[in-house]
Design goal:
- With about 210 residues, this protein is mainly β.
- It has a single domain, classed as Porin, CATH 2.40.160.20.
- It has one helix and eleven strands, in the order αβββββββββββ.
- Strands 1, 2, 3, 4, 5, 6, 7, 8, 9, 10 and 11 form an eleven-stranded antiparallel sheet that branches.
- The longest helix is centred in the first third of the chain and has 15 residues.
- It is globular and about 50 Å long.
- The N terminus is likely disordered.
- Keywords: Signal.
Length: about 210
């Protein structure tokens, strides 16, 4: 029974392809700057460490980021599943020229799922809190890593916490390319859970306006 519940929860997440993994370094856009970031990713659920079987689906998103100050960005993104997310990036350590930077990116994601519960579409709410640290290798290469927590609220009260780690590399100067990966351990209320979730992909950050 527990495995059935876990399978349904993972199918909901994979079918919806949540925006779990931010393809972001810790650095902000800068005051008055606007950037568009198309991205593609793949989400895979692995039942156990030694498992040779898995479930996976591709996805894609488009994100807009605007710098309201040199330390704070506001962001919005739309996923291929129809989920929409709003978030804020606050850079509390370093700046765009420093060798080390740190930022927190709290966000909220809303989705009306294709899964139907009691004749109604399943509405999903997710609260995201990634903490990202960047180390600059040179002016064109920025490595980043940090913990990521997501709290998923479901209609049937089988709420799930996804605890994990994200990391990647950002390449380029004017147009920047991100390659990233996130690995997560889901824990669902009211049932025991096993397995791992991995989301990987890349994005291209395109400047639309520079002040």
């Amino acid at each position: 029974m527990n495995r059935l519940i876990l399978f349904l929860l993972m199918s909901m997440l994979l079918g919806s392809c949540a925006q779990l993994t931010p393809f972001h370094s810790a650095r902000t856009e800068g005051a008055g700057n606007l950037t568009a970031s198309p991205a593609i990713d793949g989400t895979v659920f692995i039942p156990s460490v030694n498992s040779t079987s898995f479930q996976g689906l591709p996805g894609g998103r488009v994100e807009l980021a605007y710098g309201i100050t040199n330390k704070i960005d506001i962001l919005t993104s739309l996923y291929t599943s129809g989920s929409i997310m709003g978030s804020m990036k606050f850079q509390f350590l370093g700046d765009n020229e420093s060798n080390i930077a740190g930022a927190v990116m709290p966000g909220y994601e809303y989705q009306s799922s294709v899964i139907v519960v009691n004749s109604d579409p399943e509405t999903i709410h997710r609260i995201h809190v990634p903490l990202i640290f960047s180390i600059r290798a040179n002016e064109k290469t920025d490595f980043y890593i940090g913990p990521k927590f997501t709290y998923q609220i479901d209609k049937d009260d089988n709420n799930t916490i996804y605890s994990g780690i994200v990391g990647g590399v950002e390449l380029g100067t004017r147009i920047k390319y991100n390659i990233g990966l996130g690995a997560y351990l889901p824990k669902t209320q009211n049932t025991s859970t096993e397995g791992y979730l991995v989301q990987f992909g890349g994005s291209m950050r395109i400047p639309l306006f520079r002040k």
